[in-house]
Write a structure and sequence with these properties.
alpha/beta; four-stranded mixed beta sheet; 145 residues
């Protein structure tokens, strides 16, 4: 794989972004995906920095979730804000990371991301269900670093 843009075709990118929109229909939580080529440090700590730069820690209920992938470094992490982290089971994020790794090992990148988004959406909907106004506070577009 030569670059982050090789991970997903344009139709795959659209499928993943549509999955984010679908997941967010059932929750006030926000899900973002950020891809970049390299991560030279701990992927979780780096993802926390990206989470803050993307202002994901400013959602009303502190229910943002970032799925971070460093393509060439073969690293990934999931960061949940304090609201969602306070209610998810202890090993929930690790199970989502494992599911991503299984899909990625089979080169099923879009399917893996869609499964991860669905899992995050389900846990967010359970603890942060949609409200009558249900604002979309953050973009559903995949961001690239």
């Amino acid at each position: 794989m030569s670059a982050i843009t090789d991970l997903l075709t344009e139709p795959d990118k659209e499928r993943v972004e549509a999955a984010i929109g679908e997941a967010e229909l059932h929750t006030i939580g926000e899900i973002r995906i950020h891809l970049e080529n390299w991560c030279w440090s701990d992927p979780y700590k780096h993802a926390v920095d990206i989470f803050r730069r993307m202002e994901m820690d400013r959602t009303a209920e502190r229910s943002g979730v970032l799925i971070y992938i460093a393509v060439k470094s073969h690293k990934l992490a999931i960061v949940g804000d304090e609201g969602i982290n306070g209610v998810v089971p202890e090993h929930f994020w690790a199970s989502v990371v494992h599911e991503l790794q299984v899909h990625f090992g089979k080169q099923q990148y879009a399917d893996g991301l869609i499964a991860a988004v669905a899992a995050c959406g389900q846990i967010l909907a359970q603890h942060f269900p949609k409200t009558p106004d249900n604002p979309n506070e953050l973009s559903n577009e995949i961001s690239f670093g």
